[in-house]
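Fold these two proteins, one after the other.
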Amino acid sequence: QVQLVESGGGLVQPGGSLSISCAVSGRTSSINTMGWYRQAPGKQRELVANITTGGSTIIADSVKGRFTIARDNAKNTVYLQMNSLKPEDTAVYYCYADIRVLFKRRDYWGQGTLVTVSD
């Protein structure tokens, strides 16, 4: 069974840095785009960043220049490095991956990891 397991997250002060990661476990045929969404209290889920197998990225304007997304295809893992964090970055961060298992292809989601930016 395919699962996405997130790690990292936690409490950080404004201006600080944090890194979160997400590893795909289980048997897959291919893993395509991977990325991160976030959802703040009372707000809709929004795309933070994604990255293709070839390394092309999309970064949300709200985090551009502060967040970096990367992936290790050998480890089936995607990373999000978050710098210069602001209180408005506080949210539950969800990783996702577009995965094909045999002849079926769909998005899989992690359980979410809470990032809190506060003094």
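Now the second one:
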Amino acid sequence: QVQLVESGGGLVQPGGSLRLSCSASGSIVTIITMGWYRQAPGSQRELVATITRGGSTNYVDSVKGRFTISRDNAKNTVYLQMNSLKPEDTAVYYCNAEIVRIGGFLPDDYWGQGTHVTVSS
């Protein structure tokens, strides 16, 4: 079994910052790609950022220059530093990871439970 546990969401004023964390635990051999997605009310879930095990990153255009994704492979943890937050960043943020489990050969997709981010004055 594998679990992803997120933390760090909350309420912040426009222009403020938040740091999200997501730690994976369980029967893990290796984690390939980790990422963050978000879903605003009435909208589909969208990709925010991803990072490979080697550190290559990818961002949706709307967060480039404001958000930074990073990971600590030794801790099986991914972070999302969010700066210059805007009201349109308000959403539930979900952690995602492609994980090869003990006894497995191909990676499976895992999701965290989601953490709420609200940007409002």
